[in-house]
Amino acid sequence: MDRIKHIRIEGFKSIKNLEPLMLGAINLLIGPNGSGKSNLISFFQLLNYVMSEGMQTYVATHGYANSFLYLGSKITPRICGEVEFATEGGTNRYCFTLVPAANDILIFSEESIFFQAEGHPWPIENTLDPGGKESALPKTTSPPFNANELRTARAILSQLSRKRVYQFHDTTLESRLRKATHEDDNRYLRSDGGNLSSILFRLKQNKSDYYRRIILQLRRMIPGFRDFVLEPENHHVLLRWRGRDPEYVFGPHQLSDGSLRLMALATLFLQPPEDLPDMIIVDEPELGLHPEAEALLAGLIRSISSQCQVLLATQSASFVDNFEPEDVIVCEMEDTASKFQRLTQTELEAWLEDYTLGEVWRKNVIGGQP
Predict the structure, then answer these.
(1) Is residue 330 located within the same domain as residue 305?
(2) In which band, very low, low, confident or very high, does the pLDDT at 142 lie, cut at 50, 70 and 90?
(3) Is the separation of the CB atoms in 221 and 232 below 8 Å?
């Protein structure tokens, strides 16, 4: 697994200048509404679309170019981003600049890749073709790059593609979480959890030990839950389940919003290591959960952080109680720009003798309050 060492962002939504933000195994964003937590997560969401050559679709469906530029294009002429990875062999870096163009779209004015081998004096650095509506990185081929340069491009593309944003907020009766999905749609859990039933069916058939772990965890989180009933009909699987009465089978429409989200979250964090992305990014995973379920979820996150980097945004002080100060990044608005500051244990030692971390946050000792 290649972890992100730091990110730099300039001119993106409410983030005027982030220079730089160091990332650890667990990164828990806290702060009031409108402070920029979701905007930082949407930066990674943009990268997801960039790496799949879908940036224009993302920009068009999220307000077009002007809404992505800090205070609009009259104030901010460009968006700059940099992601640096610490790898076993050295350091990889991806940099890009987006500028507005006709029809309120964004195009790449600059794009580059970098690799510095451990102990080697000369880095590999390449500038990709500018001016495209989509990233040139997924299309990079040799020539003009030599074998080492091509290997660097492919490594960075793979690293960026394995950082995935998930959001399980849509639990309405029409959400994909409550719909039947094709049993073959099971290679990886989709960002909205829309193929959850197919993922669980695959695990039950082929990775029963991991499926069993998910079931045991959900029994601790959801009172009355016993097991899923996953029986394909016309090659589609519906998320049906059984409670205490072994004779009665419930449908997905009989799940509470919180229970449905817990099923998706437990599956996400308890899937086999080979199925995990390198980084899991979730906005408000605690939404609609009981404090006891929050604590159990936090335990899953701490456990998985040795295998997978985690970035979360939360509004819950009780959820924060389950983490260490070094895990927390405080988000605040200064004038019109988002600011991000990572906490340290030493600055809070005296407070933590008498209060939990969440209580310290509520007392506005560390900021992040309205």
Answers:
(1) no
(2) low
(3) no
Give the whole-angstrom CA distance, residue 197 versus residue 348.
43
The pLDDT tens digits of the residues spanning 22-60 come to 999 999 999 999 999 999 999 999 999 999 999 999 999
Q: Are residues 152 and 36 in the same domain?
A: yes
- Percent of the chain residues topping a pLDDT of 90: 87
- Is residue 282, in this structure, part of any structural domain at all? no
Helix axes 257-270, 291-304, angle to 10 degrees: 20
Angle in degrees, CA 170, 319, 334, rounded to 5:
85
Amino acid (1-letter code) at residue 342? R
Closest C-alpha among 203, 345, 178 to residue 273: 203
What is the three-state SS of 72-100?
CCCCCCCEEEEEEEECCCEEEEEEEEEEE
Give every CB contact of residue 271 below 8 A, 6+ residues apart in sequence: 189, 199, 203, 210
Q: Is residue 196 part of a domain?
A: yes
* Residue with the two structure tokens 């600055």: 347
54 in the same domain as 115: yes
Over residues 94-121, mean pLDDT = 93
Q: Domain check: are 113 and 201 in the same one?
A: no
Place of tokens 């859990």: 189
Inter-axis angle of helices 257-270 and 196-206, nearest 10:
50
* Domain annotation covers residue 319: no
Cα–Cα distances in angstroms (integers) from residue 31 to residues 202, 333, 339, in the given order: 38, 9, 10
pTM (2 d.p.): 0.94
For residue 70, give its domain range.
1-162+324-370
133 shares its domain with 109: yes
**Residues 6, 153 within the same domain:** yes
Answer yes or no: do 63 and 126 share one domain. Answer: yes
Whole-angstrom CA distances from 212 to 192, 195, 207, 217, 302 are 23, 19, 9, 9, 20
Closest CA to 190 of 150, 330, 198, 152: 198
